[in-house]
Design goal:
heterodimer, A: alpha+beta, Phosphorylase Kinase, domain 1, 4-stranded mixed beta sheet, B: about 190 residues, mainly alpha, Rna Polymerase Sigma Factor, Chain: A, Arc Repressor Mutant, subunit A, 8 helices
Chain lengths: ~240, ~190
């Protein structure tokens, strides 16, 4: 019965797919030609230097010494690396907050605000969501799950579809982590976390400092961050258990 | 250039990876229609879909150095397009500058009624719009964009066997929506 229904639906989908008369495709190639010409005519940070480190050594520490203070350069670096941007920065000043701020919401409210399903960890077994916060920085929204366990280290899981920047101080390290479909990095040491709006501008109000071990990775157009006193092995197990 | 010539495409990809903008434009010419249509399926709006298509190719160009040799180009560029379209959709919903068209009456597709009658098409589109985003996208990619299971496995980042189960799960969810709200879709089409 169910399989028969599904077969009928498949047939209807195939018919609908053939029946839709799409609007005429606009001359996108022409517009791209013009935009690429404009881009190549203006000075840019070359992607090759930024990405070679990931591919060749598995270790990425991007050199952009003025990045935390010179906005155009910081934005240029961010532009190169898609949704997870890691750059070298000055030591965060003591005035930068280390608190994870937001307002408590229900899971449904967070999903409505973000427009996607919030994933939860199935590992470690017995872990519970202690609190869910929604952070809002301009147009950017971030869900933060605080996860507790009777014996396991507690941790925070951040989920967003915004671009996340990590500014590493001289004592911080970032290593590429293998085994993820998209980019993943393991970060340690003092650093700043920040978000960017859709126009690429850094949202100053989102800047926060942290020293907690962090696994950050991209998945299906979203950025996930696991933050806490976790080992890399446990962080990877938690990341792979998200449902 | 609209017909896919695999050898020529591979040449264009190799040149584009090394920063050849002209080669990348060749890829845009091959895929502009598919990218535009994928965005249109998500957004139901030709102007928004055009903007998303442009942004998709600009992001794709910047990300070409990360493109891996062994992966097919089509699911890669469609993934950028769908993610970009979903981001745009959320921005529209958040800004509430205008309501996103999701109901049967509002989705103004032009339908070839020789293939499927208008009411049936509208009900099916409405049922799809009631599904979760990621389930709906899998169906769009398989049935509307005609991605193979291999291409879908690259898009979804999973094994081909998992693609079958993801598709079946999505279709089962669609069936549930249809049973609840559009049972006429399960009647044999005349």
């Amino acid at each position: 019965m169910i399989e028969r229904d599904i077969a009928r639906l498949e047939r209807s989908l195939e018919l609908l797919a053939r029946a839709i008369v799409y609007p005429t495709t606009p001359p996108i190639a022409e517009q791209i030609t013009s935009r690429l010409h404009d881009e190549t005519a203006s000075p840019r940070v070359a992607p090759a230097w930024a990405l070679a480190g990931v591919a060749m050594t598995g270790l990425i520490v991007l050199i952009a010494a003025l990045v935390s203070t010179v906005s155009p350069l910081r934005d240029a670096v961010a532009d190169v690396l898609d949704r997870v941007n890691i750059f070298e920065a000055d030591e965060p000043s003591s005035s930068i907050t280390r608190d994870i701020e937001g307002f408590p919401v229900s899971l449904n409210a967070a999903e409505d605000a973000l427009g996607f399903e919030i994933l939860r960890p199935a590992y470690p077994k017995g872990a519970t969501i202690d609190e869910l916060l929604l952070q809002e920085f301009g147009e950017v929204r971030v869900a933060v799950l605080f996860v507790e366990h009777p014996v396991f280290e507690s941790f925070a899981l951040f989920q967003t579809n915004a671009t996340v920047g990590k500014g590493l101080s001289s004592t911080a390290q970032a290593e590429a982590v293998e085994g993820f479909h998209e980019d993943a990095f393991w970060l340690r040491g003092l650093r700043i976390v920040q978000y960017q709006g859709s126009d690429g501008e850094v949202l100053e109000e989102s800047i926060r400092a942290t020293e907690a071990n962090t696994l950050v990775w991209e998945q299906d157009g979203r950025v996930f961050r696991l933050e806490g006193n976790l080992s890399l092995e446990d962080a990877v197990l938690i990341a792979r258990s998200l449902r | 250039m609209s017909v896919r010539d695999p050898e020529e495409e591979q040449t264009l990809i190799a040149r584009a990876r090394s920063g050849d903008a002209q080669a990348f434009q060749g890829l845009v010419e091959i895929y502009e229609q598919q990218v535009f249509r994928a965005a249109f399926l998500v957004l139901h709006d030709a102007d928004e879909a055009r903007d998303v298509a442009q942004e998709t190719f600009m992001r794709g160009y910047k990300a070409m150095s990360r493109f891996k040799d062994e992966q097919p180009f089509r699911p890669w560029i469609l993934k950028i397009a769908v993610n970009q379209a979903l981001t745009t959709l959320r921005q529209i919903q958040r800004r509430r500058e205008r309501r996103v068209k999701t109901s049967v009456a509002e989705v103004d597709y032009t339908i070839d009624e020789a293939l499927i009658d208008r009411e049936r098409a509208a009900s099916l589109i409405a049922a799809l719009n009631q599904m979760k985003e990621k389930e709906r996208i899998v169906i769009y990619l398989k049935y509307f964009m005609d991605l193979s299971e291999k291409e879908l496995s690259h898009y979804l980042g999973c094994a081909q066997g998992t693609v079958k189960s993801r598709l079946h799960r999505a279709l089962a969810k669609l069936r549930k929506v249809v049973v609840d709200d559009y049972p006429q879709l399960l009647e044999e089409q005349k």
